[in-house]
Amino acid sequence: MKEQFVEDIADVREGEWIEDSFLIRGIQLSVRKDGKPYLMLKVGDKTGVIDCKIWDQTDEFINKFSVDDFVKIKGVITSYQGIKEINIKQLEKLEDNVVNIRDFVAISHYDTDEMTQELYSIISNIKNSYLRRLLTLFYEDKAFMELFKIAPAAKDIHHAFLSGLLEHSIEIAGLCMDIKRHYKDVDIDLLITGALLHDIGKIRELKYQKGFDYTDEGRLIGHILIGVEMVDEKIRQINDFPPKLAMLVKHMIISHQGTYEWGSPKMPQTLEAIILHYLDDLSAKVNIVRKAFEKETIEKGEFSGFNKALGRYLYKSRYVDSVSADASNTSDTAGITQRKLF
Question: Is the pLDDT confidence value at 156 over 60?
């Protein structure tokens, strides 16, 4: 059972020993000033990554370990330019079956089976028969659903955890239902279809077995074009699917990033596409804030560290107080993050 996570190392003093399991994220052979080789490793768990160095016997280790290996590290905490590192003294490879994957890859707080049931309920309530059939074809595609249920929504910015894509998608669908109460002229079936399909290309854009990274297809094509291809393939299986409706669905996928600078081939040009973009951005921003607050406690100050994704410091006092109050009234240790999505 893992006891010390990367986020805990900030509180470990230099010179103290650490012994625990980690996942290798990167390996690089470098050369010291005196010309002797040394090995640089990036290792991590679900809380982050940390640099490590092996100064001696590099030949022994360079061919013995590789990226995505689980390892047991015994070493001394040091620092370089004020950043904590591990000076590795012993390194042992671990078999996959002796570690708990939840210690190394973040997973949604929500139950995957319950989210899948919510997805089915949302699809069942779509009144437009063509859109309901389109969504049903994806839901009944076992190979697709196996990936859609576990894929993250991003590599590291928002919903970057297993089942993050499913959580993000049905969260936006719930927000769409709320929007309909205020804007009666919205085509709610079209909007919800966009919410559930806008990021489906990420099941192929990302790889997410032990860590999150981009696939070759993801780097060369990207989730937007992949998603449009996937939708077009399903539409061709539906007799007499209206061409204009197909165009509107694909426009929402193509434009959901919002701007050319953010990677959209087209900017949103329909009411539903504009709403989808802003709800997508809202879901992402809220998740970024929550993730930032979960990593910090009120004892470390009332503001978070500088958040690069949002470009600002975050005031966390109210959030931490509400989590503490909620935790005192429930046995659920996950606090306010544990609830139905809508």
Answer: yes
